[in-house]
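For the sake of clarity, the format in which proteins appear in this thesis is described at this point. The record quoted next illustrates the convention:

___
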Amino acid sequence: MTLENNTPGRLMAAESAQSFAVFAASAVQEIENPLSVPRAIYTVARGSSDAAANVLSYEFMRELGIPVTSLPPSVFSRGQGVDLNGCAALVISQSGASHDLVLSAKGAAKSGATVMALTNQPDSAVEGASDVTLSIGAGPELAVPATKSVIGSIGAGMALLGKLKPAYAEDAARSAKAFATMKPEHPEAEKLQSAFLRARHVYVIGRDTGYGAAHEVALKLKECCAIHAEAYSSSEVLHGPLQLATNPLMVLMLDTGLPQTQESLDQAEARFQQAGCDVHRIRVSDLNLDNLTPAAAAAALLAVIYPVILRTALALGLDPDAPETLSKVTQTT
């Protein structure tokens, strides 16, 4: 998608197009610091970074066999922290400057954790409070919606996992090679854009690493297009949230191709179709890619959905580079 220098969305267009190269580099970066597998990992992040953390949590749990879950930054920024002896804290921050994340990194270290950070800004405050830092490697990202830094965060997390489990490093390298050859367009892009333009309420459904990707897509639909969107696991959505299918509802399903998730996704798809929803399922197999880990598959689906969300925002008369109520670095407590 080519945009003139003064055209709304030009920054997001350029930056999302760089996602493929960013992932290919970040997933194979070298880590010199010695690391051992902790008894548990707690992720600390907000917004799109938290969606990336969600993707990575499933990959780490599957590969390392240890608990990986999210801690709210307020545990450290407002509270007294928790005992993290023998554990690791994984702090993900594009800027490395958010006050609550800096306090979280410092608080986690004080509580006995090995602090690992994924940041895009060299020499940030979060990096200064961490034991080991991996570069997201996205370079300057000026559009308010994060795109290439989200993809780079997933890649950097995969590099970290490869350090903790050396055999996985080979999987990360194969994923990086495949990512570098990706076409930046989903074959259903126009159909999806039309569906988004019709939609007023969207469920984004995933499972395993696809669930984290679903959170990111739902966030971007709200952030860029002002469309109400919610993310659900394909198992949880069949409980109370299914009732909203009695109203006009678009359902976007993200399928990373993981065999263990197919039955759950199939069941959810069938139920929503029976309820008369506008159901769309995009599969990583649509991209003709091999050798992707589940985390890389989630990143690939994000990389091809970002341009669709961008074009939807522009068609709605919005500038996704600078959403009216948002700023690039959000200071929270």
